[in-house]
Amino acid sequence: MMNLADLGRRGLVLLGCGKMGSALLEGWLGRGLALNSVWVTEPFPSDWLKGLAARGLHLNAPLPDAPAVVLVAVKPQMMAEALPTLGALGGGGTLFLTVAAGTPIAFYERTLGPGTPVIRAMPNTPAAVGRGITAITGNPLASEDHLALAEALLSAVGQVVRLEGEHQMDAVTALSGSGPAYVFHLIEALAAAGEAEGLPAPLAMQLARATVTGAGELAHRAPETAAQLRINVTSPGGTTAAALAVLMDADTGLGPLMQRAVKAAADRGRELAR
Ligand SMILES: NC(=O)C1=CN([C@@H]2O[C@H](COP(=O)(O)OP(=O)(O)OC[C@H]3O[C@@H](n4cnc5c(N)ncnc54)[C@H](O)[C@@H]3O)[C@@H](O)[C@H]2O)C=CC1
Ligand SMILES: O=C(O)[C@@H]1CCC=N1
């Protein structure tokens, strides 16, 4: 049975440590993972990573023979080049936990050998502040212990949900994996709209940013549904109702637009899988 103590003893390997790998690593180190139990393979290490290496993290060093977990966090486009370098760790007791969008579990099984436990996870960047959400699903070799270990690791940086199966992964990627970008773009669009109504740019951006983060925090904490929170802002015949008439238009509103955006992301995930 594998647990977090085992992870400290046998080691955690990160293949690729860019934005997502760093967000996860930051969360784990914050939760007490020892620097000397982490091996990172990263051709372009950040200054942050180099600083960690100076304090005991193994950076671009020979890997342990049988680490407890390999976290795969390279771009799908780099996968075919990067993953075979870890071929020797496949088919043994090492769990491969991958966050790459689009790359199907079958690819890892083909590259690492059929006896390899693989868990595919889709996190998002709010993990950097402990407020991510990650969806996971494993191959048949990923045991309940493996899933529990992945859950323990990923819950260090936010919520974790288990999927029915890999068939849900492209939709999840399109919703929560890419979703933070849609929200950041909402901040940009809201600020630009404020500017168009005559506000100076810095003030418009301050108002937009605080509004989105404040509303997000309220949605996080309040027991009411999102619909009820929306209704609470909307005075009959008032300003919000006028805006929502535009945003909730069945043909030209945010609903159909968001559907198109999420479908484009899910389609791209399916394309990357080919
Ligand atoms: N950024 C995000 O919001 C999310 C990203 N993901 C997934 O996480 C993965 C990484 O994405 P990001 O961190 O955003 O990209 P990134 O480009 O910031 O990080 C990828 C890292 O892999 C490194 N790399 C390239 N070739 C390598 C090799 N041969 N061996 C080892 N490392 C190598 C790069 O130098 C880079 O630092 C992707 O597969 C993406 O689909 C998943 C969920 C959310
Ligand atoms: O844009 C991407 O492909 C990755 C997956 C989810 C978020 N970023």
From TrEMBL:
Enzyme class: oxidoreductase
Protein's UniProt name: Pyrroline-5-carboxylate reductase
Lineage per the UniProt record: Bacteria, Pseudomonadati, Pseudomonadota, Alphaproteobacteria, Rhodobacterales
Keywords (A to Z) from UniProt: Amino-acid biosynthesis, Cytoplasm, NADP, Oxidoreductase, Proline biosynthesis
Highest taxon, organism lineage: Bacteria
Domain Pyrroline-5-carboxylate reductase catalytic N-terminal: residue ranges: 13-86
Molecular function GO labels: pyrroline-5-carboxylate reductase activity
Catalysed reaction, written as an equation: L-proline + NAD(+) = (S)-1-pyrroline-5-carboxylate + NADH + 2 H(+); L-proline + NADP(+) = (S)-1-pyrroline-5-carboxylate + NADPH + 2 H(+)
Pathway: Amino-acid biosynthesis; L-proline biosynthesis; L-proline from L-glutamate 5-semialdehyde: step 1/1
